[in-house]
Design a protein that fits this description.
Elements: E1 5-10, E2 15-22, E3 25-26, E4 61-64, E5 69-72, E6 75-76, H1 77-83, H2 86-95, H3 101-112, H4 119-126, H5 134-148, H6 158-184, H7 197-206, H8 216-228, H9 236-245, H10 251-263, H11 270-281, H12 287-295, H13 314-330, H14 336-347, H15 350-354, H16 362-372, H17 379-400
Antiparallel strand pairs: 1-2, 2-3, 4-5, 5-6
The structure holds carboxymethyl coenzyme *A.
The site of carboxymethyl coenzyme *A has 19 residues, from loops.
Length: about 425
């Protein structure tokens, strides 16, 4: 008998089935042959939220949640964060290999050639209220881009995919910075392609009257944060990107679905929620009572816990180092003490230990972004900037995968059986 199979006995019929195991998985469609009667549709697997279901094969990002390992295309995140630029990482994720010097030059030149947005996009942003959430603005403006580039609909054309990737990587910082300026009532600052990718973004965000001088330490710190956010395999927003992209819609529309998913407080919105939580706690002396409240089921410790990481989030460890470098430049964030005390108490509390809850990527990023001068509601936009290459790489991998079909989960129907219509006067 082959050993890489699973033998299943259906006790309803007494029949036994051999199901193939490959890469540690069984195919859910192989369960269909298991029927209780000839009319039976066949057995399905039930897995809300995909807790134990692989939805694709991917060669992009590897995570070992128990060991706290994260690698992009095989390279440890610690080494990439130490040595690479964000655009190098974007190339690695999208093209599969680290670029040579000349490949990187072409990639950077292509991206810097597309940083401007059509003036109608600026006017579109003008239409938002002064207090519009920048994630809502980003989401709206990125989806509007699809109407400017009808050629983006040709998703099966390799050249078109390359151009749209470049456009998205190039225009995302411009739109993000314009959203920031809009909320401040400041005129838009146009891209300066003589600056690097991150310095240009900082300049478009903060420059007033040519007086902005990028601080090298802060620019590199932001670049490292973008690298740490660049991909994270099949998380909620990436799953949205793949699912929506599987309909073969253009990438601007698909990526706006990913941005929408990221906006939520359980995903990318957690960095913003952490800051609100720290504000609510207010003082270090309130930390113990706050933790007790959480343990009684009143809310969650935002920035803690992860679906995949059950020992520690390697990004959180690297981010703590970035925090030290940033605070050396900007002075300590007064909320840092509250965060450190929360972490200290939570890490020795049985409630958090038994549930394997550790600080995740979002626990300290908000404090860093705040120290850099970004308002709380802008934090998730920075996450979106970082995640853009990951979304694009996963989208293209999905399109090129011969196993891809339009994403269409099954359901277990639990509603009424058929019943006759009741006219309105008799209800
Ligand atoms: N604070 C308090 N209790 C928690 C927390 C938390 N942050 N996270 C999970 N738990 C508890 C949860 O109540 C449950 O307890 P019980 O077994 O008694 O019912 C147990 O731990 C298991 O939690 P779960 O909800 O089954 O875990 P999940 O894998 O479905 O959720 C999570 C993962 C990240 C959504 C969740 O931990 C959470 O909501 N964390 C806070 C929000 C956050 O920081 N999100 C950012 C995630 S990392 C970046 C990103 O993905 O964007």
């Amino acid at each position: 008998m082959p050993t890489d199979t699973l033998t299943v006995t259906d006790n309803r019929t007494g029949k036994t089935y051999e199901i193939k195991i490959s890469d540690g998985t069984i195919s859910a469609t192989d369960l269909r042959q298991i029927r209780s009667s000839p009319e039976d549709f066949g057995l399905m697997s039930y897995d809300p939220a995909f807790l134990n279901t692989a939805s694709c094969r991917s060669a992009i990002t590897f995570i070992d949640g128990d060991k706290g390992i994260l690698r992009y295309r095989g390279f440890p995140i610690e080494e990439l964060a130490e040595h690479s630029s964000f655009l190098e990482i974007a190339y690695l994720l999208c093209e599969g290999e680290l670029p040579t010097r000349s490949q990187l030059e072409v990639w950077e030149r292509d991206i810097s050639g597309h940083t401007y947005v059509h003036t109608s996009i600026s006017k579109f942003l003008d239409g938002f209220r002064y207090n519009a959430h920048p994630m809502g603005m980003l989401l709206g403006a990125v989806s509007a881009l699809s109407t400017f580039y009808p050629d983006a609909a040709h998703v099966l054309d390799r050249k078109q995919r390359y151009v749209q990737r470049i456009r998205l990587l190039a225009k995302m910082p411009t739109i993000a910075a314009f959203a920031f300026r809009h909320s401040r009532g400041l005129p838009y600052e146009y891209p300066r392609n003589d600056l690097g990718y991150v310095a240009n973004f900082a300049n478009m965000t903060f420059n007033i009257g040519g007086r902005f001088e990028p601080n090298r330490v802060l620019i590199r710190a932001l670049e490292v944060l973008l690298i740490l956010h660049a991909d994270h395999e099949q998380n909620c927003s990436t799953a949205a990107m793949r699912a929506v992209g599987s309909s073969q819609v253009d990438p601007f529309s698909a990526i706006s679905a990913a941005i929408a998913a990221l906006y939520g407080p359980l995903h990318g919105g957690a960095n913003e929620a952490v800051l609100h939580m720290l504000e609510e706690i207010g003082d270090i002396k309130n930390v113990p009572s706050f933790v007790e409240k959480l343990k009684k089921g009143h809310g969650k410790l935002m920035g803690f816990g992860h679906r995949v990481y059950k020992s520690y989030d390697p990004r959180a460890r690297l981010i703590k180092r970035v925090a030290d470098e940033v605070f050396e430049q900007t002075g300590l964030n007064p909320k840092l003490d509250i965060a450190l005390e929360l972490e200290r108490i939570a890490l020795q509390d049985e409630y958090f230990i038994s549930r394997k809850l550790y600080p995740n990527v979002d626990f300290y990023t908000g404090l860093i972004y705040q120290a850099m001068g970004y308002p709380t509601e802008f934090f998730t936009v920075l996450f979106a900037l970082g995640r853009t290459p990951g979304w694009l790489a996963q989208w293209e991998e999905m399109l090129l995968d011969p196993e891809t079909k339009i994403s269409r989960p099954r359901q277990v129907y639990i509603g009424h059986p058929t019943r006759p219509f009741v006219p309105i006067h008799r209800r």
